[in-house]
Design goal:
The protein is mainly beta. The longest helix has 7 residues.
């Protein structure tokens, strides 16, 4: 027996003599989303089949999306090739997975822009796309079309709020679809509101400004993908190395921009990301894999607020001006890094391993690095000997990490900071740091509120003390001083509004 996708319904075939009516198999046919015959479907909708038991992808076979009006094939997916390439946000050459199986759900991801408004489509699935049906019976026979019709038109071009909903009830079904809709060079304040759901996609955009990405539920609005440097390799980021100017307007090495994160914003000003979870699902040891990369400018005015950022390595990379408040950031090695300037307040930074490093900060001497105020540095149960920061001063002599009024959980190495030898190869020796490296700390406390022992801190680090360093402590506690441009992010509308709904 086998199931057949027909234009009007799903029926069972096989196991009966010619002329007899088909009898149902014990296992039910898969549920389709969008449903067969559905109308008003968002063109960016991933197509889902939900089975009674986990399906198994075959070694070959094709899935085709066909324009029902003229029979033209607008998308072909060969399941024998588990990856394909597409343009995301105007950047070509991104690898992605056209078909993803998670539990009992099989999701088909057409290329961005493959489907259009006001169209009817048939989905054709070769018999050998699935190796076995969920009941263990061989899948046989051709499948006819699964049919649906897209929305007649996009939302109004002058709208200031776009709704993303995985269940198809919004303006878009994907976060990237909403960003793609916003015109290049946009400066009009626009909110992308993302309803509860899981969005398995890579998001990239550039030169779009004044956008607020707001989740409906911090824990249950999840943007995720298994993306990393092995999967989407680039030869480096010109804005993340050797103190390059984050305000350089010309992308001379555009093909080298890192594309290994889940969410990437390039040269975007006035960006707000709030109230959701971004998770890079790359397993430990799977290479560098950020949840978020912001390549902004020295006056980007980016805000990340009430966000969970999760990965197993370089979780957060920020090159440019950013304010990070009330966030949880989880990773293991150099999982907060970049040029900055960045100001973190009331954040929880969680190291999930032993002998890891929270930060590696590469700011030039022209602006500040990463500053943490009233934050907590925690470790996973049993993790020990974690360092707050490491740097090669021969490459980055102006590295700045300042910690003020923060809490250290157990598992921190008492030396706290590490300097490494010059060059890009193996580190050796105990280098002498230039005096302008700022590894500074003030009023660090344990979880019980007691002062932490600082007597064996790295010799070149510095304890800021009252009243001697009162001005430094005051300045570094003020985001306007750290971030420059006299910008006070605390006055932004996001901190005054209850919700963007």
């Amino acid at each position: 027996m086998a199931w057949i996708l027909c234009p009007a319904a799903i029926v069972w075939a096989g196991g009966v003599s010619s002329g007899q009516a088909a009898v149902p198999h014990a296992a039910p046919p898969p549920q389709l989303f969008p449903a067969d015959g559905a109308r008003g479907v968002c063109p960016d909708t991933p197509l889902r089949l939900t089975f009674a038991a986990p399906p198994t992808i075959g070694s070959g076979g094709k899935i085709q999306i066909v324009d029902a009006a003229d029979g033209r094939v607008v998308e072909t997916i060969d399941v024998g090739a588990p990856t394909a390439t597409q343009s995301i946000g105007g950047m070509s050459g991104f690898k992605y997975r056209p078909v993803i199986v998670a539990g009992t759900e099989l999701t088909i991801h057409p290329r961005n822009g493959a489907l259009a408004y006001g169209k009817a489509y048939d989905i054709r699935i070769d018999a050998n796309v699935l190796r076995d049906d969920p009941a263990g019976t061989q899948v046989k026979g051709p499948r006819a079309a699964w049919h649906f019709t897209t929305k007649a038109a996009p939302p109004p071009a002058n709208g200031r709020k776009l709704i993303v909903a995985a269940d198809g009830t919004g303006d878009f079904a994907t976060v990237q679809g909403a960003f793609d809709f916003i015109p290049d060079g946009n400066t009009v304040p626009t909110t992308i509101f993302v309803r509860r759901g899981t969005y398995t996609e890579i998001v990239f955009f550039t030169n779009k400004h004044a956008i607020t990405l707001m989740g409906e539920d911090r824990a249950r609005t999840l943007l995720t993908y298994t993306n990393n440097d092995r999967f989407n390799h680039a030869d480096g980021n010109p804005y993340a190395v050797d103190g390059a100017n984050p305000s350089d307007a010309i992308i001379s090495r555009g093909d080298a921009i890192y594309r290994r994160a889940v969410f990437m914003a390039h040269r975007a000003n006035e960006l707000v990301v709030a109230n959701l979870t971004i998770r890079n699902a790359t397993p430990s040891g799977g290479s560098q894999a950020e949840a978020i990369i912001l390549n902004g400018t020295a006056s980007a005015r980016a805000i990340i607020k009430d966000v969970n950022l999760v990965s197993t390595q370089d979780t957060l990379q920020i090159n440019g001006q950013a304010y990070v408040a009330n966030c949880t950031i989880e990773g293991d090695v150099d999982f907060m890094w970049g040029q900055g300037p960045c100001f973190f307040v009331r954040c929880t930074c969680l190291s999930i391993r032993s002998h890891g490093f929270y930060t590696q900060i590469r700011n030039p001497g022209t602006h500040h690095g990463f500053i943490y105020v009233k934050c907590k540095f925690a470790t996973a149960p049993g993790a020990v000997d974690n360092y707050l920061s490491r740097i090669k001063p021969a490459r980055f002599p102006d590295s700045e990490v300042v910690i003020i009024d923060s809490v250290f959980g157990p598992g921190m190495h008492p030396v706290l900071w590490e300097l490494q030898g010059g060059g890009n190869g193996a580190d050796a020796g105990a280098p002498t740091a230039p005096p302008r490296v700022h590894f500074w700390e003030h009023n660090s406390r344990s979880e019980s509120g007691k002062p932490v022992a600082v007597d064996v801190r790295l010799a070149v680090s510095r304890q800021l003390e009252q009243p001697r360093d009162a001005l430094l402590i005051s300045n570094y506690s003020d985001p306007r001083y750290v971030l420059g441009d006299n910008w006070d992010p605390r006055t932004a509308a996001i901190f005054g509004a209850r919700s963007a709904r």
